[in-house]
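Progress against Task 2.4 (sequence-to-structure conversion) is shown through the following example record, which the project officer requested during the mid-term review.
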Amino acid sequence: MTSYAAAGVDIDAGERAVELMKSKVARARRPEVVDDASGFAGLFDASALLSYRRPLLTTSTDGVGTKVMLAQRLDKHDTIGIDLVGMVVDDLVVCGAEPLFMTDYIACGKVVPERIAEIVGGVAEGCRLAGCALIGGETAEHPGAMDAGEYDLAGAATGVVEADRMLGRDRVRAGDVVLALASSGVHSNGYSLVRHIIDRAGLSLEAELPELGRTLGEELLEPTRIYSLDCLELARAVDVHAYAHITGGGLAGNLSRSLPPGLDALLDRSSWTPPAVFEVLAGHGGVAQADMDRTFNLGVGMAAVVPAEAVDPALALLGERGLPAWVLGEIVEGSGQARFR
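Structure tokens generated for the chain above:
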């Protein structure tokens, strides 16, 4: 006689994981969340949208990529969920949308309840930081397809923006100024190259590097900064024309997506010094500047395009909120590209 457990799926462990994560998920709520006694779906009271004249729903989905492999190597799982939220909700806020709710999906080789609860706890904390609710999720055990210690996670979020307040390339004008909003580090892009550098250079994740002031592993697992509340507050306070979330493709590649065909973003590389981790990776990996530019955020996790008269109040507001920001460049006539001067 055989059973589901004999096939490698532990239903009891899954139920234990749900119990352990309940208190963490409860911290990531909004007043519009409606409890569903069945537990099969998440409910959100859409009457909250009645105050909008023409609400546009927005959606985004993403994962964390191979950064999860470093979390598994270091057996540290409580922040990778924050990374997931950052990658998803900060795509929504680029158009000016407020993230409303999020769901997550975790696939693993073996359900270890405490580990799953740590991962989901990170997702819940990320949602709290983003101002959105975590209203549902799924954990799937895939024995045979994944090793017992392996997992991957993905998520999707829904947001809303007033149609006539939607931000984007149509609002950008010559003479606008590009502001850089600092990243917290590598965030969640480029980790295939990061792991390649670590393996080829023989670097230890447990080694404390003087340039970093902590271990390499701690630096690389620093969670992605979540910008949504800062960006929403900035758009309420000043005339923001566009945002760009700096993820895979780097600063120039992502900022170009927020430019109209006849304008360029002329960026000043001397306006900031990238965090030390990028120098460590470039040095140990022998990575050319062009590849660093296209792979990593290099210390700029979000860019904002504002009119010149909004620069000082924008920087003052971001400073008050504890988010380092600076003038990165300007919008000039061109062909729709972001480039360094």
